[in-house]
Amino acid sequence: MKKLFLPLCILLLMSGCKKSELEAVNSPAAKTVSEYKVAEDAYQVAPPKEMTEKLLPEVNKSPQSQIPSKKIDTITKKVIKNGNMRIQVGDIKKAQNQVGDIIKKNDAYIQNEQFQNTDTDDNLDLVIRVPHKNFDVLVNSFSDGVGSVLAKNISSDDVTEEYTDISIKLANKKIYLEKYRDMLKNASTTKDMIEIQETIRQLEDEIDVAEGRLRFIDDRVNYSTLNLSLYKEKVRSSSTSKVGFGSRFADSVTEGWNSFISFLLGIISFWPYLLIIPLIIFLWRKWKAGRTKNN
User: Fold this and answer.
1) Mean pLDDT over residues 74-93, rounded?
2) d(CA 199, CA 260)
3) Is there a contact between 68 and 178 (Cβ–Cβ < 8 Å)?
């Protein structure tokens, strides 16, 4: 009997422990703790999408106070094309008229014009601005029929990355500017007002610089630049020149006379030194006379 009683007690004790564990698991407190752990594991804080979310004050991070970011338009590819051409022509005036006709046909214009006439050649330098789509046609037109192309250099500069970077930073600066203007309205002390106003001034200056840079890039992209130089060499040799003997004789006489005048003017320029010669002679004679008297 004693042998059967001991196993029965152990069995009843194990059944009571399992029942208490089951009740503990199903209790409201256990359910609350389990739900809290699940919620804690599922909750994750998303990182800020914009740099502005990190830097703005905590009071401005509520959904009601958030200013939506300005949408940046899709930026197309930005390529700046420039070129340099040097063309040898037989007649500067005729070539200039041909260039003018080509410029008008391609809706271009002359930004700068400079002419030089030297003893050896004539040079007409033009800075031409042409719409981007007509640049290649303009260059090909100058290559055909105007003269002999001595040099040509065409370059393309892709500034899409720079333009995009400036545009994004500009949009962010405008958001900051609006935030600081709102902060200025709520500033409570004079010190805060002065600091906020200084920050606003700096942001406005940076925005002006960025907008100016974007306008400059747009201008260079929309209108390409071509530096065109028309060159006519003056040949004065007797075998190739059409200038006769009389003209060359007159030129020689003129050059000789100019050389003589230059020599004469050079001597005259030494007139202060000529005044020293009589003084030297006077001192030498006086010294010689005194030496003779002593003897």
Assistant:
1) 87
2) 72
3) no
Q: Smallest Cα–Cα separation from 224: which of 133, 105, 158?
A: 133
Q: Which residues pair with 85 in a beta bridge?
A: 152, 228
Section 235-250 average pLDDT:
58
Inter-axis angle of helices 160-185 and 190-222, nearest 10: 160
User: How sure is the predictor about 262, in pLDDT bands with cuts at 50, 70 and 90?
Assistant: confident
- Residue 123 tokens read as 């040079």
Distances (CA, A) of 183 to 53, 205, 211: 16, 19, 24
pTM above 0.85, yes or no: no
DSSP 213-278: HHHHHHHHHHEEEEEEEEEEE----TTT----HHHHHHHHHHHHHHHHHHHHHHHHTTHHHHTHHH
pLDDT tens figures, 131-156: 999 999 999 998 887 888 999 999 99
> Torsion angle, CA of 96/97/103/107, rounded to 10 degrees?
150
Domain positions in the chain: 76-244
In sequence order, what are the residues at sequence separation of 6 or more whose Cβ sits closer than 8 angstroms to the Cβ of residue 232?
A: 88, 89, 90, 91, 92, 95, 121, 122, 123
The whole-angstrom distance between residue 43's C-alpha and the CA centroid of its chain comes to 47
Sequence-distant (≥ 6) Cβ neighbours of residue 288 within 8 angstroms: none
Tell me how far apart the alpha carbons of residues 260 and 266 are, in angstroms, rounded to a whole number.
Answer: 10
Beta-bridged to residue 155, according to DSSP, are 82
What does the block give as tokens for 168? 């994004």
pLDDT, residue 50, reads 36
**CB half-sphere exposure, 178, CA atoms < 13 A:** 13
Reported as a single tens digit per residue, the pLDDT across 87-127 is 998 888 888 899 999 999 999 999 999 998 887 888 999 99
